[in-house]
Amino acid sequence: MIDHRRNHPETPSSESETTPPERAAGGAITDLYGDLFEKKWSMPKEVNAIPRSEASPTAALPAGEGIPSIQRCEAPSAPRSLEETGLALMQVCDLILKQLYLQGGLLGLDLAKEARLPFNVVDEALRFLKDEKCIEVATGELIGRVSYKFHLTDLGRNRARDAFEQCRYMGPAPVALEDYVRQCHRQSVVGMTCNATALMAAFENMIIRPNLMQELGPAVCSGRSIFIYGPPGNGKTMIAKGLGNFLNSGGGEIYVPYAIQTENSVITVFDPTLHDVTDNEDDLDVEDSDESMRLLNENTVDRRWRRVRRPVVITGGELTLEMLDLRYNSTANFYQAPLHIKANGGVFLIDDFGRQIVSPRDLLNRWILPLEEREDYLTLTTGKKFSVPFEQLIIFSTNLDPRELVDEAFLRRIRHKIQIGPPSRELYTEIFELSCKQRGIPFAQPAVDYLYRTFYDAGKPPRSSDPRDLLEICQSICRFEEQEVVLSEDLISEAAQRFFCQI
C-alpha cells in the first residue's frame, strides 16, 4: 500500500517503470502505534481484533503472511486480430514508427514486445507500412518476418515525426475503453470474499475494541463506502490502513492496463508508485518460458495489462478537485488518470476528511454521483465526456463532527458508518503493555494506575496513542539523564506533565 502523500513522480509513458518499494522484512521490532499520525507512510501496519502481545509487528512480516490467499480474477485474453485490440490500424502503425525512430532498427519480435501485442497483430501494421514505403527490411532470418529487422525510410522518419507531434506516448499499446470497463466490472470489490478469519489475519497486530470486526466485515463485503469517525488518537487511520491491507494482501490480484484509449486520446493508468505488481514484465506468459513462442501464441494473457495486488491509494489534506480529473500533458499530448481511477478494484482512502484545501461541500458534491451510480464522468480537453467505472472501496476518515461536514443526502449514500471511540481501561492497559514490550521497557501496572487516577478518571479521555507518546517522552528523559528506563511514578508523572500540559 502506497501513500499518495509521498513524492509522486509522473507515471512513465514507456518501459522505464521503477520497481515498487518492497515491504520491510526482518529487522528490529517497530512500534505498533509508532506511525499512527505520521503524515507520510508507505505500507500499512496490520492490526488484530484479539490482543496479541506476542506478535511481531507487521513491518517485519512478508507481504500477505497469515492472510488466506484469494484467487485472482479472470485475466484479459490477448487479442487474436487487430480488430480485437480495439485500436485502429494507424494507431498501431504510429507506435511502430515512434519505436523505430527512437531505437533504430528493430526485429519484428522486438516491436511486438514493445507494443505488448501478439506478432500477428503487429505484422499487419508492418505489412501496411512496408507497402507505404515507410519501413524497409534490413536483414532477415529463415524463420520468417518475426525475425526480420526493420528500419525507417526517409518517408517513415517524416511520418514518425508527425506521429510524435500528435502524441508522444511511447508505452505499450493502449486498450480500448470498453475493454477496460468490462475488466473493471470483473474484478470489482463488490461481493469480494471476506470472512472473519481472513479479516482478522489482516488485523493481526492491533489491539482494538471487541465486536469491531463485526462492523468492519459487512462493510468490506458490501464493497461500498465506509465513514470512520471519532476523536483523534484512537486508531481510525490504522483501521483504515488495515482494511486496505486486507484487500491488498488477501484480496487477490487484479489487472491494470498501462493505458486506455478513447476518442483518439491516450490515458495512462498503470502507476508503478501505486500499483504493486505481481507479474514479471519480461515473462509474457508464465506457462511458457520461450519468448518468441509466447508472442506467437494466441491463447495467452493480454500483455498490455499488468497483474497487481488490489491497489490502496491514500490522500489527505492536500486533496483538491483537480486531482479527481484527468491530468493533461500539453507537451506530450496524452492524459494521466486521476487517483480514484487508479484505485479501481482496490481502496481509495480520504484521510483527515474535512481538512482538505477544497471545502467539504464541494468535495461531497463531486462524489455524489460516483457513490450512487458506481461510475464517474471524465472530460477531455475537447470537452468530450466519457464514463469510467467507480469500482473501489472508498473510505472517509475524520476526527471532526460528521454533522458539521456532511448532509443527510450524502450520509444516505455512505452505507456503513463506524465510530472509533476512546479505549476502555482494560484495552488501554493492553496497549500500554504492548507498547512497553516493543520498546524493551519493563511494564509497570502502577504507571497505568497513576495515569487513570491523576488524569483519565478526572475527566481527560484516554487515547489509544497515549502509551506510545508517553513512553517516547520517558525514553527521552532517561536518555538525557543517562539511565535505564524504569516506569517509576516520578518518571511517568514528569512525562505526563509535559504531555498533558494545558497551552
From TrEMBL:
Sequence segments annotated as region (Disordered): 1-27
- Bias kind Low complexity: ranges: 10-22
Question: Cellular component terms, GO, for this chain's entry?
Answer: proteasome complex
* Keyword DNA-binding set for record: yes
> In this protein, which residues make up the domain named AAA+ ATPase?
222-424
What does the record list as coiled-coil region(s)? none
Q: Which residues cross the membrane?
A: none
Gene3D superfamilies listed in its UniProt record: P-loop containing nucleotide triphosphate hydrolases
Q: Which domain of life is it from?
A: Bacteria
Recite the UniProt keywords alphabetically.
DNA-binding, Proteasome
Q: Which InterPro entries does this chain map to? A: AAA+_ATPase, P-loop_NTPase, WH_DNA-bd_sf
UniProt-listed SMART domains: AAA
Q: What is this protein called?
A: Proteasome-associated ATPase
Name the gene. Answer: mpa
